[in-house]
Amino acid sequence: MTPPLLSALARVLASIDAPRNLRALYALLAGFCLSGLLLAMARSALGRDQNLLSALWLGLGLAVAFFGVNATGLMLMDQARGRPVRDPQDALSDALRSGHRVLIALLACVALAGLAVLALAGLLWATHLPVIGAPLLAVVLPVGVLMLGGITFVLVILVGPLAGPAVWAGQRSAGVLRFLRGRLRHGLPETALLMATVYLMVALATAAVSFVVVSGSQLLAGLAILGAGVELPARQLLAGVMGLGPRAFSASSVPLEGGTLGLAALIGGGVVFALVLVLPTLVWLRGCCAVYLALTEPE
User: Fold this and answer.
1) Which of 1, 129, 175, 202 has its CA 20 to 30 A from that of 97?
2) Whole-prediction pTM value?
3) How far apart (Å, rounded) are the C-alpha atoms in residues 76 and 17?
């Protein structure tokens, strides 16, 4: 392994400090909470057969999540570059001005992948033709497997993780596409190794956070019910930690008990569930920024 690659790996491993960026943590947590609220409103409107209103809330929820992630990415890019981290409101303003570049780059890549899939579908249809059908299928089958697997690999390793950081570093959509094409042609193995390191860190962070939450919630439930005499079922006390809100819990055919106390338990557990989602996401976004910088701005 060459020294530059070792330096890049060290740079990526430093991404584990992402949760120390409290501004990014606040921005991502606020975005996820607001997006979750809007999605809950969309589900409620759909339950009342208000399809247009439901679609409106759904679109707003997805937009809040998208721009919240972009604002967080801008702050994490500042951290990765060793620069002062911008304020959340400034990051949101910048995200509103540049977020469309990420969408354009992603849509262009998905469109190219779609054209390749359509061409493959046409070849598969041609296998119904007499005489050439059977020999054509013998060729198309292995080519199609490799092509679809390769497209999926590139989307997961290269396009999805690095399109955003390229924009957060100041690239326009055309520049993002040139960067992705260059990495695809000349640096895919190195990129795959660095992104595999990021995914491994995210898996370890998720496992650590999950262990803390699961063990802590079980101990707290025992302390609250047995030690402090809180009159709530353990299942309801821990429902919020598992991501269940009042409507979802009621839909599980178990009545919501405890009145305001039971509702407060769901809300408090929901905050814990949001943190479980946010912390690994911060590590992933910070790792993607580090990979982009390692590939474009080697130390």
Assistant:
1) 202
2) 0.84
3) 10
